[in-house]
Design goal:
By secondary structure, the protein is an alpha+beta fold. 15% of the residues lie in helices and 27% in strands. The chain contains three helices and ten strands, in the order αααββββββββββ. Strands 1, 2, 3, 4, 5, 6, 7, 8, 9 and 10 form a ten-stranded antiparallel β-sheet that branches. The protein starts with a helix and ends with a strand. 14% of the residues are buried.
């Protein structure tokens, strides 16, 4: 027998022993063993053609793990699952996705702080004219005025001159019987007088509550008519009195009036006190 044939036989024997060591010892198992051995014998020629040449006289060792006096065992149970492996590395970022749908409107936030006033804008167009208002109450007009003249040229010094020729005294604030103006409406008044002077020198005074506040003097020129005048603004309270009178002992009593020459005394309210 050649060395190549011995090599093939040795391989066949080794295969039979390996199968026998792990076979089932039951009759069914023995039949399967014989079937396997027969199949191995059938494939022997092909395996012998492919085997390599070995040196003569070298014994072929049995494969590791072949048992002597073998006995087939029962197949073991499947092993337990191993522990999970560690997490792999992070993958590369993917492409940007498409824009999603708008979310729901959130709740209204707290009112913020008032901002700085902006620059004044351009002037707008005129608005539509409003409706006509209801008629208001008529404003009360304060009136107080008088204008009087001298009728009798005989005057008494140091007493009020009685101007009995009435030009205007609608409110009756001037009393011609005593020659005095009585203040009824507190406020600012204007007083003036215009005196015709004849035959004597003339000196008159404007009084307010027994106190002379204005003086006027005129020296008479022989065979001629002179004119003298004066005016003043006075603030009066209710109940104050104003009048004209000849100043002195009667030597300066040149007041005169006739059909063509007048001596007048006038006063009126400029504006009333608001308090």
């Amino acid at each position: 027998m050649s060395i190549k044939l011995l090599r093939n036989n040795h391989l066949l024997l080794t295969s039979i022993l390996t199968v026998a060591c792990g076979s089932d010892p039951t009759p069914e198992g023995l039949r399967m063993l014989l079937l396997r051995a027969a199949l191995l014998l059938l494939v022997l020629p092909s395996r012998g053609l492919d085997a390599t040449t070995e040196e003569p006289g070298v014994p072929l060792p049995l494969p590791k793990g072949v048992c002597s006096g073998w006995m087939a065992g029962i197949p073991g149970h499947p092993g337990h699952n191993g522990t999970p492996g560690r997490d792999g590395r992070d993958g590369t970022a993917g492409e940007k996705g498409e824009k999603g749908d708008a979310g729901l409107v959130g709740p209204k936030g707290d009112t913020g702080e008032t901002g700085i006033s902006g620059v004044e804008g351009p002037r707008g167009f005129p608005g539509v004219q409003g409706r006509k208002g209801e008629p208001g109450e008529s404003a009360y007009v304060y009136r107080s005025a008088f204008s009087v003249g001298l009728e009798n040229r005989l005057t008494v010094p140091n007493v009020p001159i009685r101007f009995t020729k009435i030009f205007y005294n609608q409110q009756n604030h001037y009393d011609g019987t005593i020659g005095k103006f009585h203040c009824v409406i507190p406020g600012l008044y204007y007083f003036s007088y215009h005196i015709t002077v004849y035959l004597k020198d003339m000196k008159v005074s404007l009084y307010k509550n027994d106190k002379a506040v204005l003086f006027t003097f005129d020296q008479y020129q022989d065979k001629d008519l002179d004119q003298a005048s004066g005016s003043v603004l006075l603030h009066l309270e209710m109940g104050d009195q104003v009048w004209l009178q000849v100043y002195g002992d009667g030597e300066h009593n040149g007041l005169y009036a006739d059909n063509v020459n007048d001596s007048t005394f006038t006063g009126f309210l400029l504006y009333h006190d608001t308090n």
